[in-house]
Design goal:
The chain is α/β, with parallel strands linked by helices. 41% of the residues lie in helices and 16% in strands. It has helices at residues 17-32, 45-50, 92-102, 114-125, 150-171, 186-194, 209-221, 238-241, 245-255, 260-272, 292-310, 330-333, 345-352, and strands spanning 3-9, 36-41, 53-55, 107-112, 130-134, 174-179, 199-201, 227-232, 276-279, 316-321, 324-329. The structure holds 6-O-phosphono-beta-D-fructofuranose (F6P).
Length: 358
């Protein structure tokens, strides 16, 4: 009997998606030979809704270990809209179930982040055979110590911080680098530590601008002519943390600051007189080839997922816990976020290095 395995990538892309797709495919072909057929669903859940899929050939999975992005394409299809019927009158959940059936899938592998996992869980509860694989540069999927894409992004952001060091020193400036991560500060924390940032500001730990300015002043008094701030996209001041998102984003817009980084740079300039500049590496952090770490992780996760398919073990997502790959029930992790906890070891490491957390 032949088994038909669907695979899709959903949400923001990252390095390691293709390496994971390859890992799954190679391990499946290795186990099942011509008893397995792979079906690529294009552009994430959007392709599942519209019936945009195609059968893949074995050689399409070769030569993609190092390739960035995703050969299947991806799209953000928000979970909260899945049960909302829009102007196009399409019932998305029924449409996804219909595509699964018409493509004659025995199971569907969903590679993605938190939103992807919420929809994966919903489809599983609707009776489809689903396996998740944890992707995101934010490293914020509940129940796994690490997601693929994270370490590649840490490498890229660290390289940015390294390069900013030299220009900051030449110009005696305070440089504020905006690192991706709206809700979780893992990427900022790890790249900040790896890049030797002086101040690290993350969403989970609202900052006091007076403490930030004092840290800059302290460095000046110690004879340092520059300071480097690693600021998460989603960093919030103590005052903002007490407000609703709508309130603080309206206040920022009125003040002409689109992001926390802009605001922090201006405030430091006003409070310390130091010349400041901001640097936003943005989507570069999601681009290019996966790091060696991520290639290994993606291959481990892919091979494990192939084992789950072989065992017909569905309704789960792949995870790394204490160095071992395991399967977590989708229902246990969907809708939860893995934030940086107050007692996080790496926060303590940062503190012990004299890094200010604001
Ligand atoms: O979820 C990954 C992520 O890169 C976040 O760090 C970032 O806030 C967001 O995606 C950016 O999304 P988009 O690619 O839709 O601009």
């Amino acid at each position: 009997m032949t088994i038909r395995v669907g695979i899709l990538t959903s949400g923001g892309d990252c390095p390691g998606l293709n390496a994971t797709i390859r890992g799954v495919a190679k391990a499946l072909y290795q186990r099942m030979g011509d008893k397995v057929e792979l079906v690529g669903v294009l552009n994430g859940y959007d392709g599942l809704i519209s019936g945009n899929y195609r059968e893949m050939k074995q050689d399409e999975f070769s030569g993609i270990l190092t390739r960035g992005g995703t050969i299947l394409g991806t799209k953000r299809t928000p979970f909260k809209m899945m049960r909302v019927v829009g102007d196009d009158k399409v019932d998305k959940v029924s449409a996804m179930k219909k595509t699964y059936k018409s493509a004659k899938l025995d199971c569907l592998l969903c590679l993605g982040g938190n939103g992807t996992h919420k929809t994966a869980n919903m489809l599983s509860q609707e009776g489809l055979n689903i396996i998740g694989l944890p992707k995101t540069i934010d490293n914020d999927i509940y129940g796994t110590d690490v997601t693929f894409g994270f370490h590649s992004a840490v490498d890229i952001a660290t390289d940015v911080i390294d390069r900013i060091h030299t220009t900051a020193g030449s110009h005696s400036r305070v440089m504020c680098i905006e690192i991706m991560g709206n809700k979780a500060g893992w990427l900022t924390l790890y790249s900040g530590v790896a890049g030797g940032a002086d101040i690290i500001l993350i969403p989970e730990h609202p900052y006091d601008i007076k403490k930030v300015a004092a840290a800059v002043e302290r460095r000046r008094q110690d004879g340092r002519n520059f300071s480097i701030l690693a600021v998460a996209e989603g960093a919030l001041s103590l005052e903002e943390a007490k407000q609703k998102r709508k309130e603080w984003s309206a206040a920022r817009a009125e003040a002409g600051y689109t992001t926390a980084t802009n605001r922090i740079a201006k405030e430091i300039e006003a409070m310390t007189g130091a010349e400041t500049r901001i640097c936003v590496p943005g989507h570069m952090q999601r681009g290019g080839s996966p790091s060696a770490y991520d290639r290994v992780l993606a291959t481990q996760f892919g091979a494990y997922a192939a084992g789950l398919v072989a065992d017909s073990h569905y309704g789960v997502t792949v995870a790394m816990v204490n160095g071992r790959v395991q399967a977590n029930p989708l229902a246990d992790i969907a809708g939860l976020t893995r934030s940086v906890p107050d007692d996080c070891d790496m926060l303590n490491v940062a503190r012990s290095m004299g890094i200010s957390l604001g």
